[in-house]
Amino acid sequence: MNPLVKNKKVLVTGASGGIGQFIAIHIAMNGGTPILIARSADKLKVIASILEEKFHVSCHWYQADLSKEEEWKAVSDRIIAEHDRIDALVNNAGLGVFDYFAHSKWEDINRMIQVNITALLRATYQVVPHMIAHGNGHIVNIASQSGKMATPKSAVYAATKHAVLGFTNALRMEMAHHGIRVTGVNLGPVRTNFFAQADPSGDYQRAVEPWMLDANQVARRIVNQLFKDKREINLPAWMEAGSKLHYQFPGLTEKMLHKQFNKK
């Protein structure tokens, strides 16, 4: 349990399923107030109702398609206007489409950039002045181990996560003297519906199934670190070790792990 979450308002994007839904659950379990964003109003309404009934907390939700910039701006403006404060932001929403770049569709490329980068920047841009005015806050950006170690068929996805990592690292230094914490979360494959779109064939998911992370455990780890000084959360540990090895010896690891890298 994390007592620091109690009575705190935490904005979570991509909250209608997977990691985002479990983050909302753990926020409510710890006595916090989740503010949920996703495309599916029906799912958000059900989640909010369950959390309020089970944990006796307020739960707010807003429908928004984060791939549509103007729509997300309008909704985020409304959120800021309707809440006296936002104590934490978890930029969880993200999507991937795994394919060789030469075979990619531009609409898929554009949607990954919009959701993984632009929408994340928009959410952060909206809440940062709000947090600075209150002298505190916590921003958590869900990146990926792909942002540290790119592999074939994920060139664009990895590029978006590289961008998130770079933004997170710079923002952390900018926000330090304002009392605002910034944490990056770098994950390997997680057992969620993410792969239904990223890998419709199911080949990659079957290949990595034994090593997939549990979304509930990931969410618990993230919520347990809210409002604490935590630079990064890296899961699983063996993949983070691989990322560090790749950083030191990129040519060697690409040769050694050629088959693994091409399992998508």
From TrEMBL:
Keyword Oxidoreductase present in the record's keywords: the answer is yes
Which Gene Ontology CC terms are recorded?
A: membrane
Q: What is the lineage of its organism?
A: Bacteria, Bacillati, Bacillota, Bacilli, Bacillales
* Name used for this protein in its record: Short-chain dehydrogenase
What organism is this sequence from? Thalassobacillus cyri
Cross-referenced SUPFAM superfamilies: NAD(P)-binding Rossmann-fold domains (SSF51735)
Which CDD domains does the entry mention? SDR_c
Q: Which PANTHER family match?
A: DEHYDROGENASE/REDUCTASE SDR FAMILY MEMBER 7B, DEHYDROGENASE_REDUCTASE SDR FAMILY MEMBER 7B
- Which family is this protein grouped under? Belongs to the short-chain dehydrogenases/reductases (SDR) family.
Q: Any stretches that span the bilayer, and where are they? A: none
InterPro entries recorded: NAD(P)-bd_dom_sf, Sc_DH/Rdtase_CS, SDR_fam
Which PROSITE patterns did the record assign?
A: ADH_SHORT (PS00061)
Q: Which UniProt keywords apply?
A: Oxidoreductase
One GO MF term attached to the UniProt entry:
oxidoreductase activity
